[in-house]
Amino acid sequence: MIDALPLAVTLPLIGALAVTVWPAHARGLGLAGALITAVSALTVTTEVWSRGALRADLGGWGAPLGIALEADGLSAAFLAMANLVALAVSVYAGGYFKRETARHFWPLWLLLWSALNGLFLAADLFNLYVTLELLGLSAAALGALTGTREAVAANLRYLLVGLLGSMSYLLGVALVYAAYGVLDIGLVAEAVEPGPVAWTAMTLMIGGLILKAALFPMHFWLPPAHANAPAPVSAALSALVVKAAFYLALRLWLDVFAPVLGEAAANLLGILGAGAVVWGSWRALRAERLKLLAAYSTVAQMGYLFIAFPLLAATPPGLARENLLAAVVLLALTHGFAKAGLFLAAGMVQKTAGHDRIDELGGAAQALPAATFAIGLAGVALIGLPPSGTFLAKWMMLEQAMILGLWWWLVVMMVGTLLAAAYIFRVLSRAFNREPTPYRFVNDASTELPALLLGLIATFGLGIAAQPLWRLLEQGAFG
Amino acid sequence: MIRPLEHIVIPSGLIALGGLLGWSLFLAITGETGDRLAEIALARVPDSGVSNPVTSVLLNFRAYDTLLELAVLLTALLGIWSLGAAGPGFQKAASVLEGMVAGFVPLLILSAGYMLWVGAYAPGGAFQAGALLGAAGVMLALAGHRNAGLPSEDRLRPLVALGVFVFAITGVLLAVVGGGFLTYPAGLAKWLILIIETAATLSIGATLAAAYLGGRPAPEHATRESA
Amino acid sequence: MNLLLALFDLLLTLTLVGLAVVTLTSREPRRAVILFIAFGLLLALVWARLRAPDLALAEAAIGAGLSGALMLAAARRASDRNSVSTEGSNREDAP
Amino acid sequence: MTSHVLGTQLLYGGSGILLVLLGLWSFLVHAPLLRKLIAINVMGAGVFHLLVAIAYRGIDTPPDPVPHALVLTGIVVAVSATALALAFGKRLDRDGD
């Protein structure tokens, strides 16, 4: 049986090549590539689920000489979310892009997908640098596909900020290699000793990653870049690309630099996260455009994820810590589904109305009941109302904060939740401010169903069926 | 005029960062771990199918990195193409330059072939060779060849995809026959590396030249007009 | 022998850093790019000294050569634009 | 490892760090795209220089090929990013006219 790990990276790559060579068939080939990619990645997740952590030594050399791919519960969970969201985005994009843009969208999109899968599965610090660059370049090019001046300028800035982040990460890798002489994550983890070298390398690597994850106050590039991209690209950028940077920061933190960490560093990340929650939510509430609202909401939601660091650092190893980690992952995954659903729905509204100014949305939202419903479902998950995955995740984080006596994180999360409720209801109240019109519920299945499904997964799927995630995450350590 | 951010905050931050980095580098280099991967890598070079250690690492031990790196190069070109068509190009060169280019370009192409071949045992390899091909394209563009000597778009597309394609397909086929992804069978490594490198050289050269044009190549009929 | 080599190393390093400083402080685009190309070529020389001939070749051809060619084209556009837009006013970017 | 090798590594590695800092400074304070790109390329050159320095093991000892391969990869990534960013800039210029 062929190893599923390299296939999850190579298949989208080959798909991208096919679309590059035959641009006239971009849509059909692209959708086929999307389908087999998602199948191969979900195979990885189910194998991790049934057999435990996987490892593939590429080239047969093994660490430290060769590069390996690895999948444990954490990577399998992010991989599954990313590939489901990416599949939904692909179906949506199939109906969204006109022929001329589709030629450019599909190859870049499959390259981005390849980078995402490569990043979630990578087990080598330098290989991660290459996947980060592949991700950054393809994401910026995709974001500029709308072709407006705002989009091009915002995504140029995104490209440059991303390059700066990668450079910082690479400098950290160089220090690690100078000190420990290995690049494989597992071997580096064994070699790392607390001290200035490990501390500086960690700061450089995680610093570069939080720039890419748009953690407050380094978030300035995100709202214009995400709000001006084409809707399916916005969905992928907000739901997946920034999430990948967070995943990597979490991975390095847990697997490599755990012995190096002081609580001070964790608290610093938590404080920046708190700033992101408050500032991002506030700006989302004040946003005049729906997509800008969604982008600022991403800034806020990334903040919650970083609040997890001080909580994790303060919780002693054991069941409580495992539960907390699972809650953080659940939060990240739910946000992935919800935000992608929100952007896809916003894209339909924008396309129908010709704009996305929130105050003038009434009629358009009314004409698209499925889109409005998807926005509502995504909103439930973004606020954290039951039965969404966010509700469960936030509840567990709040509980742990209370047990630890760290009540200030609790206050921040409550404030963020209230603000989220305010900005979501602001949109929904516009959508429902007219008499219902007798349009059909679903108007264009290929674009509306993906958005709806993502919203449903975020609100019902992950909330009610969170149990499997706990089991998946237990597939931790490599044998 | 003193701007506090530019004249105080950034410089002092950078000086502090520099101190931290310098100190860490000193500790890292003088630390006990010493030998890094060097000995392991150099010891395995004879098993890699090529005798140039850097080529061994690039095309065998860490071949997967190189595959993704070629994908990065392709991404950049596709991104450039998505941003618009190439500009009008340079004016037709004077006959002196034209003559120089006519002499130089074959020389560059020959050197590229040589560099590709020697990369197995001496400094050189696909990237240096590809860069020479790219340079030949840049010279042609400077001399007024509108498409930098590149073929029309429908033939250029397979050309720029070739490197990644051969690389990735080799990897997958090796996995299918049972060795594992990109695990070259003993004895075949030399030839597989040469095939991959040849494809990569062509793609790198074409991609760099196409990137220099700065946009989608002009359609066929426009090329004929300018020629 | 060692002392001579150390002096040579010091000289190379000082020149390299000095070249980087003048590159990064040049306001005029074309001048900055040409200095950047010189910096890349010197870097290639230093890498040859450090027993990295593969990298010296790659840096000279790609890092200095092709990046330089790409940037020169951009610099030419920038100066064209500048000479148009600042006609009749003070040219801040003049060397 | 002799002290001379160590000294050489530190000298060149240290100058690599200096290049990173100079590039970072220029990236932060200069607005034009071309200057930012030159700055980020100098930063990259600094990181590569650091890697080449730690790969050095003396004038008569073969160097560590692993950092060399990493740098070669990095050079190609850097030129790709530069080319893409310049195409963005070109597009903005064109739209501005």
From TrEMBL, chain A:
State the GO CC annotations.
plasma membrane
The residues that cross the membrane are: 74-93, 105-122, 128-146, 158-180, 200-222, 229-250, 256-280, 292-312, 324-346, 367-386, 406-428, 449-470
Source taxon at top rank: Bacteria
Q: Which UniProt keyword terms apply here?
A: Cell membrane, Membrane, Oxidoreductase, Transmembrane, Transmembrane helix
Q: Domain named NADH:quinone oxidoreductase/Mrp antiporter transmembrane: which ranges?
A: 122-419
Q: What class of enzyme is it?
A: oxidoreductase
An example of a GO molecular function for this protein is: oxidoreductase activity
Tell whether Electron transport is among the UniProt keywords: no
Pfam entry (one)? Proton_antipo_M
The record's listing under InterPro entries reads: CPA3_Na-H_Antiporter_D, ND/Mrp_TM
Where is this protein found?
A: Cell membrane; Membrane
Q: What is its EC number?
A: 1.6.99.5
Provide the membrane topology annotation.
Multi-pass membrane protein
What family does the entry list? Belongs to the CPA3 antiporters (TC 2.A.63) subunit D family.
Please name the PANTHER family in this protein's record. Answer: NA(+)_H(+) ANTIPORTER SUBUNIT D1, NADH DEHYDROGENASE
Name listed for the protein in its UniProt record = NADH dehydrogenase (Quinone)
Automatic annotation (TrEMBL), chain B:
Just give the chief location class. membrane
Q: Which residues cross the membrane?
A: 7-29, 67-87, 99-120, 126-144, 156-182, 188-214
* GO CC term (a single one): plasma membrane
One Pfam family in the UniProt entry: MnhB
**Origin superkingdom:** Bacteria
Transmembrane helix as UniProt keyword: yes
Give all residue intervals belonging to the Na+/H+ antiporter MnhB subunit-related protein domain.
100-205
Subcellular localization, as worded in the UniProt entry: Cell membrane
Q: Does the keyword Transmembrane helix apply?
A: yes
Which keywords describe this protein according to UniProt?
Cell membrane, Membrane, Transmembrane, Transmembrane helix
Membrane topology, record value = Multi-pass membrane protein
By sequence similarity, the record places it as follows:
Belongs to the CPA3 antiporters (TC 2.A.63) subunit B family.
The name on file for this protein is Na+/H+ antiporter MnhB subunit-related protein domain-containing protein
What is the scientific name of the source organism? Thiocapsa marina 5811
UniProtKB/TrEMBL annotation, chain C:
- Keywords noted in UniProt: Cell membrane, Membrane, Transmembrane, Transmembrane helix
Q: Where in the cell is it found?
A: Cell membrane
Q: Which Pfam families match?
A: MbhD (PF13244)
Report the principal subcellular site: membrane
UniProt cross-references to InterPro entries, sorted A to Z: MrpA_C/MbhD
Residue stretches making up the MrpA C-terminal/MbhD domain: 15-78
- Report TM segments: 6-25, 32-50, 56-75
A GO cellular component annotated for this chain's UniProt record is: plasma membrane
Q: Which domain of life is it from?
A: Bacteria
Q: How does it sit in the membrane?
A: Multi-pass membrane protein
**The protein's name:** MrpA C-terminal/MbhD domain-containing protein
Task: State the species of origin.
Answer: Thiocapsa marina 5811
Q: Provide the organism lineage as a comma list.
A: Bacteria, Pseudomonadati, Pseudomonadota, Gammaproteobacteria, Chromatiales
TrEMBL record, chain D:
Write out the annotated subcellular location: Cell membrane
Give the record's membrane topology.
Multi-pass membrane protein
Subcellular location, principal: membrane
Alphabetically ordered keywords of this record = Cell membrane, Membrane, Transmembrane, Transmembrane helix, Ubiquinone
Highest taxon listed in the record's lineage: Bacteria
Where is the chain membrane-spanning? Answer: 12-30, 37-56, 68-88
Q: Which GO terms describe its cellular component?
A: plasma membrane
The family this protein is said to belong to = Belongs to the CPA3 antiporters (TC 2.A.63) subunit C family.
What protein name does the entry list?
NADH-ubiquinone oxidoreductase chain 4L
Organism of provenance: Thiocapsa marina 5811
